[in-house]
Amino acid sequence: MALAGHLTLSEAAVEPYGVVLALLAVLGHLFPIYTCLRGGGKGVATAAGAFFALAPLAVWIALGMFGVVFALTRRVSAGSLAAAAALPIAVFGVSGSAMYGGGAAIAAVLIFMRHSSNLRRLWAGTEPPFRLGPPPGR
């Protein structure tokens, strides 16, 4: 994505090209071709890496949101969802680009979709907290 600015693209094409590449990276992580579009990850780290190339300060802001929510809840999924929700706002606020902000919003929606089971457990109060070491009972 950072290379998009160095390609022979018109100035107007650089932003959409970067967003498309970022979203393709996220989609490729969520729905890997080599597993017939099943069994991918949740997309948080991939979205962070992709948008770090477009708006690094915004990703740091979202990472800060992750840290605060994780510290308060001890749940990685809650921190991840908070960071995903903060990313589009931070991207738009930092870059001023509606294109980048919209791309981050699409990534956030995809992340929330992949976290649907975590959301159900968070609402039910059954999402396990983060622990170091082996799970209890072993």
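[next item in queue]
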Amino acid sequence: MILYLTCSPRGEASFSRRMGDELVARLGGPVLTRDLGDDPPPWIDAGYSKAILAPPTPEVPPALAVSEMLIRELEASDRLVIATPMHNFGVPAPLKAWVDQVVRINRTFRSTPEGKIGLLRDIPAYLVVASGGWFTGPSPTGTPAQPDFLTGYMRTVLETIGIRSLHLVAMEGVTRGPEIADRAIAAARAEIARLPG
């Protein structure tokens, strides 16, 4: 099963959602879609913080019920597709809320003297990023690349829980007019065609 996370507030008008849909169709198979832009997970609160530090119990505490549901979706999946915009050089709030629910000590990772060890099995993961600027290199006119606090962060987060096989599909300059957006779409399609299934 593919776990497909969409993160844009723009719904069907989203560039990342459009390319994410095409990638999911290429990969094939059953899909569980979670639209984080429309229905974001709850923010971490005091109850969650207290529950993750409490001694383990056979039953999942109510404060961790959403976290447990989202983690089980990951565990049931053999591929992960995340389609997201880049907001202000980084991760949009709904995706960060999902990360905070699934990166959970003693559940998806454990802390050791050597560092954090992921407890989930490694599965192929695909990160489709749409950005109004250019972040993988200079723009076509030579403007320096903007900061990118999204792709490295997501790579680190997924590795922390055990998912180490991450493939990036970048769509850059999508807000700079239809011609540039069309080029970004064509480049993303070419990258998707090269990706392993």
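[queue empty]
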